[in-house]
Structure formats: C-alpha cells, structure tokens
C-alpha cells in the first residue's frame, strides 16, 4: 500500500467506537471475462472460494445504526494460479471501494456489508 493511502485511511477512518464487529461478511465477486457477478457470504475467520480465489475475512465491522451505513472488512485473498502468496491483504470499505482494492486481471472483489 502506498504511504499516502495509509495516511488517508488513518485520517478518514472514524474512531473504533463508531464501528461494531460483525460475524459475517457479504462480498460481491465479479468475473471480468464473463461479466458474471456472484454474492459470496462467509463467516469471519472462514475461507470462501470464488473461481481460483481463496478469500479469508479476518475482520468485518459495520457502522453503528445511527451512523451513515458502511462496512469495512480486512481480507486476505490468494489466487491458486499465482502460488501461496496473497494477491491482496488489507482493509476494504463498502462505501469507498477504490481506496484499497484487489488488482487482479480477471476478478474483482468488493465488500457489500458486515452483519
């Protein structure tokens, strides 16, 4: 992650008290070749599969009910075609998917919500 992105995230992310830990994450997966969109739901700490991707949700947090709806999930994503090293590791935000995103030629993953 670029240093300016880390600074942006530190300034943009509200205090931890504004976020509620959740047990499940709902993700949207896109196959860019076929344009097929799939909703993937998984429990925090569990692995989910989408095509050749293995997605682990390490943490998932939702905003308080009286706040603007948003979700943030810490994801570790590996591609079986690219070896064991993660192709993505970091926080993704539902309301700001472009801040920190998976850069993959075939697939796109986005956080929808945490419950």
Structural descriptors:
1 helix, DUF2155, signal, mainly beta, DUF2155 domain-containing protein, three-stranded antiparallel beta sheet, 8 strands, five-stranded antiparallel beta sheet, 115 residues
Number of strands: 8
Rg, rounded, reads 14 Å
The overall pLDDT average reads 85
Run of helices and strands: HEEEEEEEE
Structural class: mainly beta
Helix content: under 10%
Terminal CA distance reads 27 Å
Count of DSSP H/I helices: 1
For the record, the count of structural domains works out to 1
Strand content: over 45%
Low-confidence stretches: none
Shape: globular
Largest sheet: 5 strands, antiparallel
Structure description:
Keywords: Signal. There is one protein chain. With 115 residues, the protein is mostly beta strands. It has one domain (3-7, 16-114). The protein is 9% helix and 51% strand. It has one helix at residues 3-12, and strands at residues 19-21, 24-31, 36-43, 47-50, 53-63, 71-79, 86-93, 107-114. Strands 1, 4, 5, 6 and 7 form a five-stranded antiparallel β-sheet that branches. A three-stranded antiparallel β-sheet has the order 3-2-8, with no helix packed on it. The model has no long low-confidence stretch (mean pLDDT 85).
